[in-house]
């Protein structure tokens, strides 16, 4: 379908974009790469009267470690994430996710900030942010704010971003020795939304005991979901095959999928069980190596 009519505005600075949003009101939407918003507009799930293009704002595309924090600018594209040497060597979970995100044409324009800010449980990056315990940095009328990822997703396409806020940066604790992450999703075809997906990040001590664990689920609930009960089973314990099997079962029980064209509820629960166990094993292998 063709989107409903809208007025187009281009902002060249954060200040200009925020001022435009305040002037135009609730019917204005920000757009960077557009690969989350435009499909909804074509389906008439979103009908904003104004689009504020923020893709030309400079200084929001970067990947760097700053002290104990990995910082990723919100305008960093999926392709930049895919090819960044720092992420390849120390944060391979990003490579897992990007390779499963749409196709190269989409990855060249789609941004990590847009993927997260959209609040879509079917997008890939939200599960990674939950697993990695990210903090979201946003700029708005009242200045800069830091939002822990567990406080960011509020509901179906709803986030903690206030009207006029722009997501500017993602902050993630720097990768430690004996840590590793992994992500995988099942999809009907290349470029489709996930039938189900699982992101895992684990940190071990010198004896192989799980010191910290993050597990995020993709597209099996109305909001991106943390598997809290499964994390508690592993934290503080040496990870065994039995515990991994237990967490897989917990994942299948605690997720909230709905039957649709991608599969029945029972099928999705089975997939989550299997992927959770596989990603735990893959993350463990990376942490031990």
TrEMBL record:
Domain FAD-binding PCMH-type: 1-177
Keyword presence, Oxidoreductase: yes
Keywords from the named record: FAD, Flavoprotein, Oxidoreductase
Flavoprotein recorded as keyword: yes
UniProt GO MF annotations: FAD binding; oxidoreductase activity
InterPro entries, sorted: CO_DH_flav_C (IPR005107), CO_DH_flav_C_dom_sf (IPR036683), Diverse_Substr_Oxidored (IPR051312), FAD-bd_PCMH (IPR016166), FAD-bd_PCMH-like_sf (IPR036318), FAD-bd_PCMH_sub1 (IPR016167), FAD-bd_PCMH_sub2 (IPR016169), Mopterin_DH_FAD-bd (IPR002346)
Pfam family, one: FAD_binding_5
Domain of life: Bacteria
Coiled coil: none
Full protein name: Xanthine dehydrogenase family protein subunit M
């Amino acid at each position: 379908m063709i989107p409903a009519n809208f007025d187009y505005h281009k902002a060249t600075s954060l200040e200009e974009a925020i001022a435009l949003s305040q002037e135009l009101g609730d019917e204005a939407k920000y757009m960077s790469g557009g690969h989350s918003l435009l499909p909804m507009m074509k389906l008439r799930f979103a009908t904003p009267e104004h689009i504020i293009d923020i893709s030309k704002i400079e200084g929001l595309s970067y990947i760097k470690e700053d002290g104990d924090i990995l910082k990723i600018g919100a305008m960093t594209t999926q392709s930049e994430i895919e090819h960044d040497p720092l992420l390849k060597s120390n944060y391979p979970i990003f490579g897992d996710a990007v390779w499963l995100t749409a196709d190269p044409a989409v990855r060249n324009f789609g941004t990590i900030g847009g993927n997260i800010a959209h609040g879509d449980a079917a997008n890939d990056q939200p599960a990674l942010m939950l697993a990695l315990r990210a903090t979201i940095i946003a700029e708005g009328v009242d200045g800069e704010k830091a939002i822990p990822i567990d406080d960011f997703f509020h509901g179906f396409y709803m986030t903690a971003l206030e009207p006029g806020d722009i997501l500017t940066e993602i902050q993630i604790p720097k990768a430690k020795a004996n840590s590793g992450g992994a992500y995988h999703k099942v999809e009907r075809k290349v470029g489709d939304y996930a039938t189900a997906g699982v992101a895992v990040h684990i940190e071990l001590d010198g004896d192989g005991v799980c010191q910290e664990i993050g597990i995020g689920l993709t597209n099996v609930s109305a909001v991106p979901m943390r598997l809290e009960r499964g994390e508690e089973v592993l934290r503080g314990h040496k990870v065994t095959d039995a515990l991994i099997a237990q967490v897989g079962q917990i994942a299948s029980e605690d997720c909230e999928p709905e039957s649709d064209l991608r599969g029945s509820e029972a099928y999705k629960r089975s997939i989550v069980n299997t992927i959770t166990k596989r990603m735990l094993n893959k993350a463990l292998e990376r942490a031990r190596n």
